[in-house]
Model the fold of this input.
Amino acid sequence: MAPISRIQRQALPFFVSVLVGALLAAGCSGEKPAAAPAMGPMPVTAIEMQPQKVPTSIEIMAQTEGARETEVRARVGGILVKRLYQEGETVKSGQPLFQIDRAPYEIALAEAKAKAEQTAREAARLKGLAEAKAIAQKDFDDAVSANAMAQAALRQAELNLSWTTVSAPVAGTTGRAIKSDGNLVSTADSLLTSIYQTNPIWVRFSLGESDLAKFAGGRVTAKDVRGVELVMGNGQKYDKPGKLNFLATNIDTTLGTQALRAEFDNPDGLLLPGQFVRVRLLTGERDGAFLVPQSAVLQTEQGTLVMTVGAENKVAPRPVKAGEWYGKDWVILGGLNAGDKVIVDNLIKLRPGVPVAPHPPAVPGAEQAAPAKKG
Done:
């Protein structure tokens, strides 16, 4: 036994006195030391299952694109003097977007105008002589032809000058400017930007072999699709329904996919070209299915299961057959019956046979502030 140190010998009388005082106090009061409180059933949220009619659907990754993607190109060459729009803004049809140096085309127009006036005067002068048979008819005909060509050249010069202001051919959302101020624009390299029409907006996607196998003949037809919905990147359903506006009649031999395209109204510009979204094709209805929140469906080595409230309010795991997703829920095709209570929270703490105290989900907005007391 280790010897007691000097500090321990000095502290020993103090601990003994405290212990004796505690025992005397307990003896005088006649009370027993309080026992640890017993653990009660764990409170859990449970949803009572009721069979529902659920739309059958297929969800596919998709990408948005403008309904019309129009290239804006210069019709004449020259130095790009100024960009007249803000990249990414919405423009109207005919709105000026770029300005090419006008000076060379103004000079060309002046020359063409002078030439056209000269030929017009010459044709008018020779007309009287031709009528008087003072000149050969051929001379007059040549003057008329020269005047016609000069007038055409004048019109072309006027068009060239007008084309130095590059305008939007359609209304829509502008893209990035390809050329910067001071760049040389040529007719061989004339692309300046693009305009995207975003209302309506198109969504492009393809169905693979596994999805196509669900349809007769291994391909989708228009009569197979009852509706089209769109799910945003944050999981929220887009509030406007869509419709198919293109359905390929052939299967891609390389990828084994069938290409489709849907159209959605986009008046507020919520959808932008190039976004990755999910398209939900509604293909029919399934009666007698159950909807269980995705977080309540567990994937284990033994298969898919949910935790239910069994006899005596004890946890009872239940194997289930899961179908597709429907919104934020799993569609359960088998393993559940009407009236079963599925636990949707505290799943990590649950074990088979553990007592629980189930309660229904809280209804949003059901809690109201207590009325103020009158003074």
